[in-house]
Please model this.
Amino acid sequence: MDFRLMVEGAKLGFVTGARGIVPDAVTTWFLPQVVGLPTALDWCAVCTPPANCSTQLTASPGRSPRTSPPVFAALTRRILWRIAGMDHPMHAHRFDSAAIAAMGRLADAAEGVEPFLQKRRPEWRLSPRRDLPAGLPWPEEPEFDLPG
Model:
C-alpha cells in the first residue's frame, strides 16, 4: 500500500511514546500493515519519523527525535514484533490495553507528562533490563521441535 499524506502541511505524530505510554488504538497491528514493520518500529519507538522519509514528516523544531523512554521503546519493539504475525487486530487490542495499563503505573509515564507541561526535557530513570512490566498477556509461542 502506498502511504501518502493527502493534505499539504498535515502532521503525523505518535506522541504517546514521548509520554511513556505504548501505542494505542491497535496501532501495533494496523501501522505495520500500512507502512511496513521496519517503518512502524522506527516511527513508534522514536516518536517522530526521520526527516528524510518519503512522506516528508519531520520532528518538531528544537526537539530531539529520540525522546522515548528506554522501557517504552523496548516494550513497543517487542509488541510490534510479536503482533506482526497475528491474523486479527483483536490480538493487538488485548495486548495493547494490558500494556497501556502496566506502563501507566510506571514512573516514566509521569515523567513523560510533567516535562511536557513544564516545557523541559524528560529524565528517564527506568531501565528495560530491570523495569519492563511483568504479567503481560504475551501471545503463546509454539514449542520448538527438532526435525527428524
Observations:
- Confidence is low (pLDDT under 50) at residues 47-66.
